[in-house]
Structures are given as C-alpha cells and as structure tokens.
C-alpha cells in the first residue's frame, strides 16, 4: 500500500480510503513477488512474511507506516529461519491444492465431496501459517495449536474464505486480484487478535 502523507479534509480522507481499497491487491502482490523472488520453492515462507508485513501496516493506525519497506525487510530478514518455520505449511498447502484439483476432476475417491474437508483444512493451515509469520521463528507449536484453541476465529476465517471463493468463482478477475489479499488480511487481523488474547491469558496466570 503506497503511503502518501496528506493533510486532513476531504482529500486526506479520499487518499486514506483509496489506500484501504487497494490494500488487498497489494497484499496479494507482495506474496506473489516474494514467492517468485524466492524461486517459488523457497519463496513461500518469505513471501508470506512479506504479505503479512503489508497486512499489519494496513491494519495499523500509523499514517507514517511504510508497508513495502516493511515487506522487503521481512522478506530479507532471517530467510533460512523463516524456511524452517513456515516452509512445512507451504508444502502442506501445495499438497492440498493438488488433491483439490484431483478431486475436482474425479480422480480421488469421494469426488467433489472431498473438496469440503480439504477446504476447511486449508483454511486452518493458512491461519496457522499467518500466525507463525506474526510470531516469528521458533513458534511453530503455538502457530499449529492456536487456531484449534481459538475455534471461533477459525470458524470466522472459514466463512470468510468460503465467501471469497464463491465471489471469486462468480467474478474471476476481481476475485484473483483482491481475493488472496483479502484472505491474508483477514487471517492477519484474526491472528493478531488471537496472539494478543493468548498473551493476555499467559500474563494473567
């Protein structure tokens, strides 16, 4: 999201709303750019960290936020540590994508009915991966478990994902441009809430 400092009034309000409207596309672009920059195979983990960095800047109230600078810094920092922390989620999601394609063409037992549990598992893994990107390296156990102990947030994300999928099938071009970014933005917002709730619970012990 390009940040342009503007004064108050209608012009400032218009610029802020324009930034919010384009943010989902930029979040998706940050992930794709990070994925390609890592050669696809090694790009999932740093690409996800870059997309989450843009998402967090979008969610921030700081008018001086620099999302793309944060995205580049997130991509470059702890490259190999992020591979160990997040690459397994990328591999699992890639496997689910392959299974979904095979189910869609009737090459898996159960046919299209298999797509529903695959979709739910994919949503869980996306939530988990985003939480891992928020927390940083060495927190994979928390990232794996937190979506399970916060089932309300996970259910909300599944519903959001289903709505985005349906909208994307109905309107492919806008769905491709905005859908992935909206999903990552929602996952980041929910993940930050869940991490904060977990920290508050631990502090209250």
Automatic annotation (TrEMBL):
Pfam families, alphabetized: DUF624
UniProt feature coiled coil, ranges: none
Superkingdom as given in the UniProt entry: Bacteria
Transmembrane feature ranges: 27-45, 86-108, 114-136, 148-167
Range of residues in the leader sequence: none
Record has Endoplasmic reticulum as a keyword: no
Keyword terms of this UniProt record: Membrane, Transmembrane, Transmembrane helix
Record InterPro entries: DUF624
Name of the protein described by the UniProt record: DUF624 domain-containing protein
Native source organism of the sequence: Tessaracoccus aquimaris
Lineage, uppermost ranks: Bacteria, Bacillati, Actinomycetota, Actinomycetes, Propionibacteriales
């Amino acid at each position: 999201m390009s940040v342009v400092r503007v004064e108050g009034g209608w012009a400032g309000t218009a610029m802020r709303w324009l930034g919010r409207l384009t943010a989902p596309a930029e979040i998706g672009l940050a992930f794709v750019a990070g994925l390609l920059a890592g050669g696809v195979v090694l790009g999932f983990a740093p690409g996800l960290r870059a997309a989450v960095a843009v998402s967090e800047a979008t969610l921030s109230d700081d008018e001086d936020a620099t999302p793309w600078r944060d995205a580049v810094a997130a991509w470059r920092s702890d490259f190999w540590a992020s591979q160990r922390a997040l690459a397994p989620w990328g591999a699992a999601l890639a496997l689910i994508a392959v299974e979904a394609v095979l189910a869609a063409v009737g090459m898996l037992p159960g046919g299209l009915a298999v797509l529903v549990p695959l979709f739910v598992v994919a949503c869980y893994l996306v939530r988990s991966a985003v939480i891992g990107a928020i927390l940083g390296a060495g927190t994979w156990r928390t990232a794996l478990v937190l979506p399970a102990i916060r089932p309300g947030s996970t259910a909300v994300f599944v519903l959001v994902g289903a709505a985005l999928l349906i909208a994307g099938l109905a309107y492919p071009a806008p769905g491709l441009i905005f859908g992935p970014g909206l999903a990552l933005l929602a996952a980041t917002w929910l993940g930050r809430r869940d991490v904060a709730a977990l920290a508050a619970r631990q502090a209250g012990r």
